[in-house]
Specification:
With 292 residues, the protein is an alpha+beta fold. It contains eleven helices and four strands; from the N terminus they run αααααααααβαββαβ. A hairpin with a 6-residue loop joins β2 and β3.
Length: 292
């Protein structure tokens, strides 16, 4: 089977699993306690709450959150199409639809599977963070806040999608404060903050890795530059134990690219000595490549 087809199938499976994990955690742990979600989904919940509890226009006879969530994502879709390209948007639209589908078809019981709201917040934050992180790692976004976060992060190495979640949530929970009690706002804030932290840790494309290679081969850099498309710096070194000359290569990539980078190195020198350092800080012009 062609590599591109295998990759596409793997990405579809990842998106289905990530969105399903998110929907299951939200419906089973978060919604039964009346807590609010992150980003544009949280905004959709606030709109429905205003229609139901303030204006009394909506009486809860059908699911209104999912359609509103899709509608308010339209401007973000246009932004992503313009800045990130068609391939990104195809996967993003699929992921966004699957978020809504899972939220509608997965059971949402009146009572959560745990009795303590803090436990639900912690468990829900971990599971939803992993779910969103899986989706983002495929190079897709799962809604408006993800799209905006990825567009900003592509252009600012110090930014992250998790930070964008927190910024949007300040608005969402500010609205919740005036509609509901402070206790619900605090629990929702605990849930979304933990989710943002887990998301940034699981989003492999946002984690930068410094790779140092020690080898006696001349052309290690060619495989990295031509197939992984990352820059490489080389200098000559000396092994202190063997007193033999060696070549030292250094490159920076994101964690998602690391397996391909190692594969290119070992093609040329199976015995190459590789040192990887995660979460390196990069200043200056560097492409994070959050999408393909």
């Amino acid at each position: 089977m062609d590599k591109k087809i295998k990759k596409a199938i793997a990405e579809v499976v990842q998106i289905l699993f990530g969105t399903g994990l998110f929907g299951l955690a939200v419906n089973q742990l978060i919604l039964p306690f009346g807590l609010y979600n992150t980003g544009f989904l949280g905004i959709a919940q606030v709109i429905v709450s205003v229609l139901a509890d303030v204006t009394r226009i909506y009486r809860g006879s059908f699911d209104l959150v999912s359609p509103i969530f899709l509608m308010i994502n339209i401007p973000a879709f246009l932004l992503g199409l313009f800045l990130m390209g068609k391939k990104f948007m195809v996967k993003t639209i699929f992921a966004t639809i699957m978020y809504s589908v899972w939220m509608m078809i997965l059971p949402a019981p009146e009572h959560a599977i745990v009795s303590d709201p803090l436990t639900a917040c912690l468990l829900g934050g971990i599971l939803t963070g992993i779910g969103v992180g899986i989706v983002l790692t495929t190079g897709a976004a799962g809604g408006g806040q993800d799209i905006v976060g990825m567009c900003i992060t592509e252009r600012n190495p110090k930014a992250s999608v998790g930070i964008m979640y927190i910024i949007i949530n300040l608005f969402v929970y500010g609205c919740c404060y005036f509609i509901y009690d402070m206790e619900r706002v605090i629990y929702s804030l605990i849930y979304t903050t933990l989710m943002a932290l887990v998301l940034d840790r699981y989003h492999k494309r946002n984690i930068l890795v410094g790779v140092m290679v020690f080898t006696k081969k001349e052309n290690v850099s060619i495989g990295i530059m031509e197939n992984v498309h990352r820059g490489v710096t080389r200098w000559d070194g000396m092994g202190c134990y063997t007193d033999e000359e060696t070549k030292v290569y250094y490159s920076v990539a994101n964690k998602y690219e690391l397996p391909a980078l190692k594969q290119e190195i070992h093609k040329i020198d199976p015995d190459a000595f590789i040192v990887c350092t995660e979460n390196v800080q990069v200043d200056g012009k560097f492409a994070k490549r959050l999408s393909d």
